[in-house]
């Protein structure tokens, strides 16, 4: 329905020479009536033959023959099609007398511009019946092509997108086979809430069972005896009285009491096949941790059931009404009892560990992550030849395996950040695995380029020409620098050059970025999630490196706060604490600036939550140390972080604890400043003297007048400074420092 008019416009534009006629019903025509404006605007010379019976014909047909004439919601209240067409610049005529039909049709065909002929027919008039074969099985009907039966019971996703008929052939329909499209069959979302796929799937019958269970069209009533596998009696579908044999109305749907007699497979949990969870997983979590194959290849990949359970479990967190705890119990039971030791099990444990970490359960997350690392090292996923040994080097599966190892590498570092005693399991190994490709190439629609080596990435600094690597590669290097900062903070005795080396790595990482990798948002508004994480990681490492050595440490230091790093006397010299404070504050500013560009935190990695929490706390501590002249500046950044954490805590429990910690600290630390901020700025808006004295005027510098300056005075009147937040910076930081010692 609704296909005829736009299809006719497209056909006429594609082939202007032939005559194009759209034979349409009133209900179908109503759905795309506005397309007449398109035909009129571009003078698309199509002809429309409109049959108007003020009914939804297909629905009326079904209600008449199969629901005892219980007509419900089948009558249309149509507009005046003739006047509506003329209002959009299309010629239109109406015909309600049989004797006028020939003349009206002649007028329609001879019209030079788009035209419509409305033919009014009797209400409840039925459409012409289809003629399916009398003896057919359900399996035959499902696979019969559209040309043979006139309809298909399902359509692939590509045909749905283009609103084209699909012949439903498997494994690929004719159109996808001809155009080399990826052919997938997904259940329709129409008709209410989705039922489990298996409830609509019939068991495969042997050839003899198909013969015994064939649908025989007779005038007999259906027996009330349930259909059992041992039953040799045929199933019967009644034909409405008055329909001659061999001419069966379309569609051939059995009465409702016969639908329950089909043999069904045992049903599995409904949430297992809820496509919402899969879609939400790929729209949110996969964007931040792209280790599985792209969404277009997910169904073809046929992942093991335990991995599909994990994917649905993670996706369930993005549905407000879902009870993810029940799903978690199923996932834990499945993973614990499964003896699989493949890379799919590594992916399952890894994704599960990140989700559990985001839920605010660090110990359980560490245990799950350790299982993933154990299996990965047992398989040798850290070796350069592992991915190529299972698949070709340029295949999607090989790229997925390489990405899985690097996600293990990154997760290892971020999970160890809040825990002072945890050890690194993957980060200390030699980087043999090839680097992932660019995200634009990892879509499943093109070949994977030849992977690059980590050694090539490190040599880019000395290359004569600048080479751009994938965003994932810069994310990996940023994580390596974060790991170095964490290790340095745990050392009790180190040389000043160790600290200087990490600081040099942080600064040089930014300096060696290609111009196209400096920004996280392109000119079209698309976010490069991998570069967002890379920039966030560098800023997070900078905060962790400088905060314990700064004079901000004592302002908000809390022994039980997992987001605030602990201070040790051996970490910093009191002579240089202000410098460390400036660097920590600047890093927190960069994080708040980045998150203001893309504040949808649920689409980012859960590892951004600790960085955001620390960013807000540093801004809060800086506002306490600084004068109140820049209070607005820090206050706005703190409220930005609080808002992002508030929107994320509905999904992840870790954000809830971060939000509550920052909110409590801000409420206590800023209460006095907020009271003064709400009253004192009002007095600053109004000068004490209403007009300057003549003496003041003589000392005021005169500005040369010009047409431009006068126009600027008119267009841009003076702005009261009280409405503008003052910027926050330290003059000392921009002056030359004779002895820059950061030890």
From TrEMBL:
Protein name, entry field: C6 transcription factor
Single GO biological process annotation from the record: DNA-templated transcription
GO molecular function, one term: zinc ion binding
Source taxon at top rank: Eukaryota
InterPro entries: THDP-binding, TPP-bd_CS, TPP_enzyme_TPP-bd, XnlR_reg_dom, Zn2-C6_fun-type_DNA-bd_sf, Zn2Cys6_DnaBD
Origin species: Penicillium atrosanguineum
Chain ranges of the Zn(2)-C6 fungal-type domain: 155-185
Phylogenetic placement of the source organism: Eukaryota, Fungi, Dikarya, Ascomycota, Pezizomycotina
CDD domains cross-referenced by the UniProt entry: fungal_TF_MHR (cd12148), GAL4 (cd00067)
């Amino acid at each position: 329905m609704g296909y005829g008019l736009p299809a006719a416009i497209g056909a006429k534009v594609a082939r202007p020479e032939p005559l194009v006629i759209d034979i349409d019903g009133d209900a179908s025509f109503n759905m795309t009536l506005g397309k007449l404006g398109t035909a009129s605007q571009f003078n698309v010379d199509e002809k429309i033959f409109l049959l108007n019976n003020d009914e939804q014909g297909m629905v009326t047909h079904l209600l008449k023959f199969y629901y005892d004439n219980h007509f419900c919601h089948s009558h249309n209240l149509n507009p005046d099609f003739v006047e509506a067409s003329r209002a959009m610049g299309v010629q239109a005529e109406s015909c309600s007398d049989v004797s006028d039909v020939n003349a009206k049709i002649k007028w329609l065909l001879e019209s030079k511009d788009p035209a419509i002929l409305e033919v009014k027919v009797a209400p409840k008039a039925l459409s012409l019946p289809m003629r399916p074969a009398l003896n057919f099985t359900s399996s035959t009907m499902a696979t019969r092509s559209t040309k043979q039966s006139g309809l298909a019971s399902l359509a692939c996703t590509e045909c749905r997108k283009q609103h084209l008929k699909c012949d439903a052939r498997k494994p690929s329909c004719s159109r996808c086979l001809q155009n080399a499209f990826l052919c997938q069959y997904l259940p329709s979302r129409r008709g209410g809430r989705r039922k489990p796929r298996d409830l609509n799937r019939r068991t495969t019958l042997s050839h003899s069972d198909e013969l015994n269970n064939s649908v025989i069209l007779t005038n007999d009533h259906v027996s009330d005896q349930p259909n059992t596998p041992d039953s040799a009696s045929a199933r019967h579908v009644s034909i409405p009285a008055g329909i001659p044999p061999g001419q069966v109305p379309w569609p051939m749907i059995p009465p409702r009491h016969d639908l329950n007699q089909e043999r069904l497979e045992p049903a599995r949990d409904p949430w297992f096949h809820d496509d919402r969870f899969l879609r939400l997983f790929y729209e949110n979590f996969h964007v931040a941790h792209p280790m599985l194959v792209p969404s277009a290849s997910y169904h073809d990949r046929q992942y093991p059931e335990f991995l599909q359970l994990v994917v649905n479990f993670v996706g369930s967190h993005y549905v407000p009404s879902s009870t993810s705890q029940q799903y978690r119990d199923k996932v834990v039971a499945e993973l614990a009892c499964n003896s699989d030791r493949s890379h799919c099990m590594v992916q399952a444990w890894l994704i599960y560990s990140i989700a559990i970490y985001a839920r605010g359960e660090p110990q359980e997350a560490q245990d799950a992550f350790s299982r993933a690392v154990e299996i990965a090292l047992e398989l040798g996923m850290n070796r350069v030849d592992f991915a190529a040994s299972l698949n070709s080097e340029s295949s999607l599966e090989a790229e997925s395996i390489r990405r899985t190892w690097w996600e293990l590498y990154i997760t290892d570092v971020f999970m160890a950040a809040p825990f002072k005693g945890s050890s690194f399991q993957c980060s200390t190994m030699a980087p043999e695995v090839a680097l992932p490709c660019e995200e634009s190439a990892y879509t499943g629609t093109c070949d994977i380029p030849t992977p690059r080596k980590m050694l090539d990435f490190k040599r880019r600094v000395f290359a004569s020409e600048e080479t751009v690597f994938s965003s994932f590669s810069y994310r990996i290097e940023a994580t390596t620098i974060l790991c170095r900062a964490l290790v340095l903070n745990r050392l009790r005795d180190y040389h000043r050059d160790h600290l200087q080396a990490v600081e040099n790595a942080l600064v040089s990482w930014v300096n060696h970025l290609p111009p196209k990798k400096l920004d996280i948002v392109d000119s079209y508004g698309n976010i490069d999630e991998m570069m967002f994480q890379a920039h966030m990681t560098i800023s997070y490492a900078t905060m962790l490196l400088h905060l314990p050595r700064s004079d901000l440490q004592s302002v908000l230091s809390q022994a039980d706060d997992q987001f605030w790093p602990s201070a040790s006397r051996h970490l910093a010299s009191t002579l240089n604490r202000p410098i460390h404070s400036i660097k920590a504050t600047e890093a927190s500013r960069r994080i708040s600036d980045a998150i203001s560009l893309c504040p949808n935190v649920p689409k980012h990695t859960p590892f951004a939550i600790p960085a955001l929490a620390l960013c807000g706390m540093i801004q809060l501590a800086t506002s306490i140390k600084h004068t109140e002249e820049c209070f607005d500046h820090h206050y706005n950044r703190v409220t930005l972080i609080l808002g992002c954490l508030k929107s994320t805590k509905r999904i992840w429990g870790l954000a809830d604890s971060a939000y509550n910690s920052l909110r409590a600290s801000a409420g206590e630390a800023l209460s006095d400043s907020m009271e003064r901020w709400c009253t004192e700025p009002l007095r600053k808006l109004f000068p004490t003297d209403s007009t300057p004295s003549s003496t003041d005027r003589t000392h005021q510098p005169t500005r040369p007048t010009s047409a431009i300056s006068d126009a600027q005075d008119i267009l841009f009147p003076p702005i009261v400074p009280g409405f503008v937040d003052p910027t926050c910076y330290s003059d000392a930081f921009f002056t030359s420092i004779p002895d820059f010692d950061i030890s």
